[in-house]
Amino acid sequence: MITVVRNQKLKTLLKEKKTLVGAGAYDGLSARLIEESGFDLIYVSSMSATASIYGKADMGIMTLPAMLELTRNISNVVEIPVIADIEQGYGNYLNIAYNIREFEKAGAQGVLIDDSVPGNVWSVELISGFGGPSKGMPLREVISVEEMCKKIRAAVQERSDRSTVVTVRCNLRGTKGYTTDAAIKRANRYIDAGADVIWAAGTVEEKREYAKRVKPPLGLFTAIVPSQDPITVDDFVKMNIRTILYTTPPIYLAGKGLLEALKKLHSSGNIGDVWDQMFSHDEFNRVTKLNEPVEILRKYAKT
Predict the structure, then answer these.
(1) CATH homologous superfamily of domain 10-249?
(2) Residue 262 CB: number of other CB atoms within 10 A?
């Protein structure tokens, strides 16, 4: 990974075709920890944020104001570029033309838009194992290619900053009659409409096909999530996918770690049993930058 500072634009980094590895943040503290761990990018994950803020599964309840506030809070506390998951754009192409500027003002250097029909709980069939129609679940739905291309053109042409990266994910997988060929055909239409980056979704083999047959201007993004067989960053780099995001692992790590520690603490009643699993006061104060208000107190206390 490379060292990234705030004045380096995400678009410039992507043009340099270096490997960039990011992780999904769900609040300001998780974003700071991701940055401190050495990652190159922050992905504002709506799935993780829904779990963190509302304690619920990813079912499209993160509103535009909530995602803007979260993006702003995260952008304010990190130096590395921030990519915001903006779902389906919170409306049609008219809404996207306005909303992309709001995310830019909130500090996002890139956005991710997908082509699902709003209200689809996309993770039910593909991640959670609840199944499709045979188990009483509806199939995923996507909007028409033509409508999605209007959204992409609106995002690209109406963004305030030409360097803001527009990433698009094709969610055709899981729909009726899905084929990899059809998804790749859609993805290439999205590039023609102006998408800077395509999010390569699906299985590892499907992503391999994306890498061979989809050539967006700034390359492919992809995600590593716990529902897949273990795969490394190097595996994707060998496919020529050079931007990789651990989208949900941070909240899965935090959730499991917290649960196990709290169970141990409750069972033993002895804080010493979890001592080595906690930040010390000094560590916590360093991560949350207590030194900043302290400096202000020292500066003005005697004036």
Answers:
(1) Phosphoenolpyruvate-binding domains (3.20.20.60)
(2) 11
